[in-house]
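As described in the Methods, two query proteins were run sequentially through the folding procedure within a single session, without resetting any intermediate state between them. The first query and its resulting structure tokens are shown here.
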Amino acid sequence: MVDSIVIGYIDEVLPSYQISLPLVGESDKAIYEKNKALGFDQKDEFIQRKLKVEKLVAGAPVNDEVILSLNAMFKDIEPQFKTGMKILIALEKGNYMHEGKYFFSRYGTYYIVEENYVLPAYEKVDYDSKKLTGASLDQLITTIQSVRED
């Protein structure tokens, strides 16, 4: 489940940032030590976009502007947001090193076209995506609100 579903538009491309992710298991630690000995710096890069929120559809309230964050290794898989794009997007609140940022997936993202129609940001052809491709924004909002209990 996600924390919030909002409608907004991409306002700005922000600089990427790098962090060292925590080493969870013994294999992570062993790989880290080996890479460190070879001179590799193990940092993950995250790309960011500023989203101006126009409407909360479901879930926890969010600020008027939120920062979308995505691990750069998924940049060719997840939606390629450009400034000015209007979207409906499901957000998961970041924590720890990602405090104040929100994560997303193509499976909870819809492009809003011609002001009132939606196109899923994923290419998986199944019953739900066929049903919602080209649906009105109002239809999608009604569908979301019928399955969410907020």
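Immediately afterward, the second query was submitted; its sequence and tokens are:
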Amino acid sequence: MRSESACLAAAAFCLYWTLAFGVAEKAGSSSIDIPKLESSVDIDGQLWEDAWSRAAAFTVNEEVATRKATGAMLPPGHETALKIWRSADALYLGFRCENPDMPMFMNAQPRGRDGAPFSDECIEIFITTPAGGSRSSRQFVFNALGSMYDGTWCSGAPDKEWNGEWQVAAAIVRGAWYAEVRIPLSDLGRPGYILINCTRVSYGQGRKSRLSAWQAPGWFDPVFRIDLDK
């Protein structure tokens, strides 16, 4: 049986992030502003640091079915909150992924680097950068246990040969899981700007899945622009 202090700590953690994420607005279809902070955090999935309270807030709640937007948003209890900020040399993303069936039911398993975390309860991040007059895409995927996949997306097909120096950690609580991500700008070629999108796959009991996106459809061709040279 869990101790009373452990239960209180878990409850405080959930309350802190309910308040800290608050009501997040969905971004528009162009440039978005995120703060540049002189801060550092431990990539441990806990998201306690002050930098997260000052990050820009969004939602990844646009429902997708058969790779098309349904026009609906995910219902309460299944929502995904996203926070983003940056330092001089890295991009930071924090997620709160609601799932009422967790942790009693969890469709995720430990996988080696570049396994198949996209088959699990997971988040996918797509980042496109300008490169020599064309554009190249990076794909970052992790599941609720922190197993990682990364690669490039070229000519409509994935290529997992590229491995970055990015970091991710996940933490599971009752009714949700959290993830903390650090992507060095060197992983992206230190561009002046990036285009970004995120999607989430969640599973309930019976392996019934839900797919949602920050911007749907078109996550392989993201439209949200973040300027990094300001």
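The domain at 4-21+28-227 is CATH 2.60.40.1190 (Immunoglobulin-like). We note this only descriptively and draw no conclusion about the first query from it.
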